[in-house]
Every structure is written in structure tokens, then in C-alpha cells.
Structure prediction request, 201 residues.
Amino acid sequence: MFKIPLIILLVGVLVSCSSRQSVNTDLDELAIERGAREDKVVGEDFPDWIHDSGSDGEFIYTVGTAEYPLTKPGSYVVEAASLDGRGKVLQDAPSDYKAIIQSAIGESLGAHGDFNQMKIFVTEVKGVQGIKVDSKKIACRKIKRYSTAGTKLNRLCYVYTYVPIAKLNEAYARALKDKYGVDKANKFKEILQSQLSKLSQ
Prediction:
């Protein structure tokens, strides 16, 4: 008497569970598919100069970048990218320039370019003056970021910054003076000038 309704109930439960599993599987597949999609810049592509960090022997060029949700004003994102570019001045300096600085510091301190000493010293170089932003090389775009959690629309900005190498040399000399005194700083400047002169010959 109760067998038929019971069977119908069990079938209904099984169908319901199967349906929920199917929906969950479909949602999981959609999330995975969405997460696998490449991020997409809205509008025209970024200019080629965003890859042009380096040096021409007189200036060091860096490219700062910043990305925030669209709720942040464009000016805020540009300023953040500018700060990032300024912070990369030491980081993105050419390897041959870094080697000369390391050697000059080592000789002036009598350490002959000890790498660990150089590494500590670089973290103490602050207040590099003369860093400027090229107002013609500021680029911002909206960008779609895809993930398994969903799609986000952000604002991504690149800013081109540059600084004379001479100003960077001065910053190293100031840091050396603050830590080791005037004599060591003067010796560093003499050695550095001599090595840079040889490089330019």
C-alpha cells in the first residue's frame, strides 16, 4: 500500500540530488573556464615604451606601474605609478652601473666590493633627487581581470620616469657620508669618477 508513494518519493529525491550536482558541476566548469581566460585591456593596447626601462649612459629610465579598482580616481592611480617608478630607480639601474658603484664603495671602505656590505648599503640610499616624470609617457587603461571568483574591471597605469645618473651618484655619496663620514664619501666620489671616466673612454 505504501510501496508506490515511497518509491516515487525516493525517485524524486534522487532526481533532485542529481539535478543539484549537475548545476554545481556546470557552475564549477564555468568558473574554471572564466579563470582560464586571459586578462583583457579595454580599448587600444598599451604603448611599447612601457618595456623601455634601462639607461643611455646619462639617464636611468624606469617604468612605474599601479592598478586599482575603478572606484579610485585616475589621478590617484597615476600618482601611485609615479611613486613606483621613483622606487625602481635603484632597482632598475643597469648591472654594469651597479658593478661600478659596488666596486667604488668597496674600495672606499677598504672592503674591495664586498657584496653583503653593498646589499646593506643600497637599502640606505634615500632621497634621490632629480627624478622626473615624462608627462608625454603616462598611459592608463581599463583592464578586465578574470578569475574563478568572477571578473573585475580595474584601472592600470604606467608612468615613465627618469633621473640623471649624476643625481644617483650624489645620493650614494650622501648615504656614504651619513654612515661613514666625509673622508669616505670623498674617496668614494674620486674612485667613482675615475671608474666612470674609464667606462666612457
About this structure: The chain has six helices and five strands.
